[in-house]
Amino acid sequence: MKQLICPSCQTRVFFEQSDCVQCGEALIFDTAQSNVVSAASAMSCANRDLIACNWATDESDPFCPSCRLTRTIPNLVSDRNVALWKRVEQAKRRLTYDLMRLRLPLAVSSGAHIAFDILSDETAGHPIMTGHLSGLITMNLSEADDAEREARRAAFREPYRTLLGHFRHEVGHFYWEALVDQSQLISPFRLIFGDETRDYGEALAAYHNRADRSWNSDAFISEYATSHPWEDWAETFAHFLHIVSTLDTASSLPLSLDERSRHTLDDPYLERDFEALLSLWDAVSYSMNELNRSMGMSDAYPFHLTQAVRGKLHFVHLAILKTRSES
């Protein structure tokens, strides 16, 4: 996220802010300008008062481009659920921003389109499984509860588990369908990721029932990526979004960079030079981890990008470039 500035007092503000802490100006993020503007100059999303959505909308829809993607909202019977939903939508706005900056389609010719069901366990009467089906992403509201999410992260031996990470992973499944399936990329996909036609349900069951939890960290970005080629793609797609989004943030930080790095950071979402992106990411992720350790915190990016994983990331980048060039 490039640096945002309050239009009234020129103070730096965060992407999530609805008001400037310096001057009190009410703020709205205008997606058309990709910048914050005064709330007096734009139409607020209908969810602004309820969950502090700080995005603008227009006369065609009461909800902003991110909120209108939510098909089902959770049960709002409790203040806790409202607070958790606020966190979910906040993360989803980051995802929506990623997709807009990458110029990726939100729908495909088959009719599938991105939508979200944000569900709570007490309404369903059974545990909600976060997942994806033909563009519809289901998110368990409890994933916004830090304690519950951390417990699941530890139980599943995951080095990283965030709301935004979930969204980026699940939307990756949609973009396998949109960018790879039924395209000229399907053959190289199978060479790199494996044969996705093997039974998905059986593969996941085998993964969860494995007694031996060792896995090939040279070939996969995460243990879960080993379960099935679709999950390998989704995990890799999510990491590509992690990379370009973080580099976009780095573009406006007071860093000492050479001219080539500054060119790459001009718009990492649209950068065509994959090696330039990865070279810069190596330096940025190392710096983030060192800073976190100085604060006594865990690594911000606890992953190692091997040559095989870099190749998979490169394939994701090529698939995005191909789709963008054809649109």
From TrEMBL:
What InterPro entries does the record tag this protein with?
A: UCP012641, Zinc-ribbon_6_bact
User: Which Gene3D superfamilies does the annotation name?
Assistant: 3.40.390.70
Instruction: Report the superkingdom from the record.
Output: Bacteria
Pfam (any one): Peptidase_Mx
Which residue range or ranges hold the Zinc-ribbon domain? 6-76
Protein name, per record: Zinc-ribbon domain-containing protein
- Which species does the entry assign this protein to? Tardiphaga robiniae
Organism phylogeny: Bacteria, Pseudomonadati, Pseudomonadota, Alphaproteobacteria, Hyphomicrobiales
